[in-house]
């Protein structure tokens, strides 16, 4: 059963419509990630679910009950933002216990819950510190801990990792994944524009574009069967190669897409030949940029350290069947 149902949700700010009829079900315990480019309406959609923003039209239901008019505090949700918004003069313990004290729990109950959350988030050694004595990653974990102690049915995250440096972002991403595994009944909705976060955390991803749902599916569904050029180009790194005009004619499509890892070097009967422009060597694999005369260079993944030199001529072909075909409007064609 859907725990959260969005039925034709619309939101306008004045005459400007930002969310243009979004319908979707989110299951109990599911980790749903909203992704999309800047300004597509991800945060607005999250704020509509939280109640921080009023819905212009459509129905939002929790467990089958419309909640459009329910105040945020009555929805059983907790929210974690990009800016941790901790109280600077309170210790980690006090920051985590603050919301609970207001809700009238006993001192012992507060203590037990804070200690349990601190244990889950590896914050136990820092309970007496002030926020300024913590790293950015630790501060964000305090903000998450403060949400956990409230024991929400639904957790909302709005780009919680975007203020962290690359290493901390990876570490905190793992913490959030572990947290979700440890709280299987808790539904999590997570907003990001980082497709790696979306791929690694989500049970399902919802790709938004300009206030409309472009596609909802598991990370692998979106990766393997994107229904548009937009989704195909958004999910996966490096970005999928797109070729059109004469390059796609042979495949009976307006545009074809092929991922870097689905191209192989071919000595004979190569689909495309070109000149190596540049190789990015990452150690575990390399990305070879090939000028085949198309608008953008073709990116080809090679396992290990590439020995191809700029200026070298190479033939490449897509691996059997690993081509995505799109029509003129950018919609995927039947396979
Ligand atoms: P980002 O990744 O940049 O945070 P987003 O996808 O989360 O973007 P939103 O913050 O939801 O996008 O904003 C969607 C659109 O709505 C933007 O064009 C934004 O300017 C507009 N918008 C958001 N809040 C308001 C508001 N309170 N008043 C007027 N316009 C708003």
UniProtKB/TrEMBL annotation:
InterPro entries: AAA+_ATPase, ABC_transporter-like_ATP-bd, ABC_transporter-like_CS, ABC_transpr_MalK-like, ABC_transpr_MalK/UgpC-like, Mo/tungstate-bd_C_term_dom, NA-bd_OB-fold, P-loop_NTPase. GO terms for molecular function: ATP binding. Its main location: membrane. It holds the Pfam family TOBE_2. SUPFAM superfamilies: MOP-like, P-loop containing nucleoside triphosphate hydrolases. This is ABC transporter ATP-binding protein. It comes from the Bacteria. CDD domains: ABC_MalK_N. It comes from Rhizobium mesosinicum. Residues 4-235 form the ABC transporter domain. Belongs to the ABC transporter superfamily. Keywords: ATP-binding, Cell inner membrane, Cell membrane, Membrane, Nucleotide-binding, Transport.
